[in-house]
Amino acid sequence: MNDAHRLLALTALAAGLHSTLGWEWTAAAGLAAGYWMPQRAWIYGGVVVGLDYALFVAFSFARDPRAVGVMTETMGAFLGNMPSYAVVALTVVLGVAIGIVTGAAGRRLRHLVDRPLGR
Hints:
Elements: H1 3-20, H2 26-36, H3 41-63, H4 65-78, H5 84-114
C-alpha cells in the first residue's frame, strides 16, 4: 500500500471517528498516522486530521450554508470581531495542530512498541 492510499484510509478513519464519536477522537487517527507512517509522522498526522476538519467544514457549508454562516459570524464576534473566514481557517489550523502533535506521539509509540525488551 503506497502513502496516498494510507493517507486516504487514515482520513476516512478520522472522518468516521469524527462523525460517530466526536472531534476529540480524531486524535486517534493522527496517532494511527504516526504509528503507520513513522518517516514523516507529524506531517502525515497534520495532513490526515487537517483534511478531516476541512472536509467537515465543507460538508457543513454544503448542508446548510446559512446556519454555518451565522455560526461563524457569531464565533468571529465572540473572538474579537474576527472575520468569519478566519474562524473557518482557525478551525482547520487547530485540526492540523491536533494531527501534528498526535502524529509525533504515534511515531514515539511505534518506537516504544518495536523496541526489544530489556533495552
